[in-house]
Structure formats: C-alpha cells, structure tokens
Amino acid sequence: MDSTLVERSDGLVTVVFNRPERKNALNAASWAALDRILAEVAVNPADRALLLIGAGGNFSSGADLAGGGDENSGLTGHGRQSILNEMRVVGDLINRLHRLPKPTIAAVDGVAVGVALGLALACDLIVASDRARFNEVFVRRGLSLDGGTSWSLPHQVGLRRAKQMAFFGDWVGAQEALAWGLVNEVVPAEDLPKVATAWGRRLAGGPTTALSMIKRLLDESGSSTFEQAVEDEARTQHIAYTTKDMAEGIRSFLERRDPEFTGI
C-alpha cells in the first residue's frame, strides 16, 4: 500500500497521507513522496492549489519514531545520519510547503501531532473537523520543537498560547483551536472532505499569479514596514496587470458574469 496518494482534478492536487493503521505516521516513504510532490506542484502550471488530508479519520500522528521502513534508511530515507541533518531535511521540506507559490490547505480530522502539526500550520488555510485534536507533543518525549512550529505557532496563536502548547504538550480540541486562531473553520467530520475540496477548488479556479503574490505579501507582512508593504503592493499590482487573468477579471465584471480564470 502506498504511504501517500496523489489525486489531481481541475487544478487541485490532493495529497492523502495513507497509513491509517499507524494514524498516518510519517515515515521515510512519506517524506520522499512529499519531496517529489512539492517539486512537481511548484513548477507545473496545471497544478494551481494543494490540499493535504489524511486517510482513515486522522491527519497524522507525526513522525514514525517506531520505524516503518528499512532501519538503515533513517527517518527521511537518506540513510542513517545525525538528527541534525535529518531535521534539516524535514525543515527544508516544510519550508518549501510554506513558500510554495500556490495556495495550500490542510484538512485536519482526528489527530495532528508534532511535525504533522507543523505541516498543517505551514499551509495557508486549515479546515478542521469537530473531532480534530492538535498536540505539540515534543516536550512529552523530552524533545525540542521541530516542523517549523517554533515560528508558526507564535505567529498564528500568539506567544503565550504557543508557550502553553509547547511547555505542556496538552491536547487542543477543535473548538479551542478555532478560538485561538489555530484553524480557519470547524465543520462536522462527515463534511470535512467535501468542504476542504470545495475550498481547494475555489483556490485552484482563482487567478493563480495574483494569489501567489497575495500569499507572499501577507506572509511577509510581519517583517516588513508599512512603507515597504505599499511599495511591494505597487510592484505586485503592476505584475498582476500584465496577466490574462486580470483582463478576464475586468471583462467578466463588465459583462456581469463570474470570471473564468486560467491561471496565466
């Protein structure tokens, strides 16, 4: 059974973590698949949005510390090496997800733990089921943080909530996560795939170049000045004016119909 499934439809790339017997714990094959998929989506113009979801009622229980592959392959499949190098491989992958020039969504059902929480937080949007639970588990294993969560948690829930999650390693339920700003929306578990796919299709049907620049502007807002932000807006707006999608947006407005963007 493949550890990761990939489905493509109308510009939406759906990545399914597919080890339900292990609550979709991420092994070397999982990281290798994610490496390949991110490389493809980054450069393929037909891939216009990315959705991460887990099989069998869970997003992912995090890194598969119990094995799940060749013991000589290491955690990420690059051979036995120091944890420092392993974590750099993982960090690079999650950074590539965070910096992907196309919009991304995580659909979280069941558990999202440790590095899997980092994957979810690296996405632009998170839709959670009403039974979703989140855990920054590292302290319970005597570990420091990884998965980019030392950056993403305080940016998304604030420093004090981030410290609460990281210091105690307690479970955070779906409604609490919504109240803290950890997720965008909470829906009934049976509706999660439908809602997440609908969001993904809306993004895949959007003006891809404009969305890419909007994403970058917002991601960089925390480290830029207001003066830099308005200058960056001027430059990205100039680029947007050169796209066919912008012309379609104006044409559809004048013709009083919904736009049909092509991503170019």
UniProtKB/TrEMBL annotation:
- Fetch the InterPro entries from UniProt: ClpP/crotonase-like_dom_sf, Enoyl-CoA_hydra/iso, Enoyl-CoA_hydra_C
Report the domain of life of the source organism.
Answer: Bacteria
Q: Which residue windows are coiled coil? A: none
Pfam families for this protein: ECH_1
Query: Per the similarity annotation, which family is this?
Result: Belongs to the enoyl-CoA hydratase/isomerase family.
GO molecular function terms attached to this record:
catalytic activity
- Please state what the protein is called: Enoyl-CoA hydratase/isomerase family protein
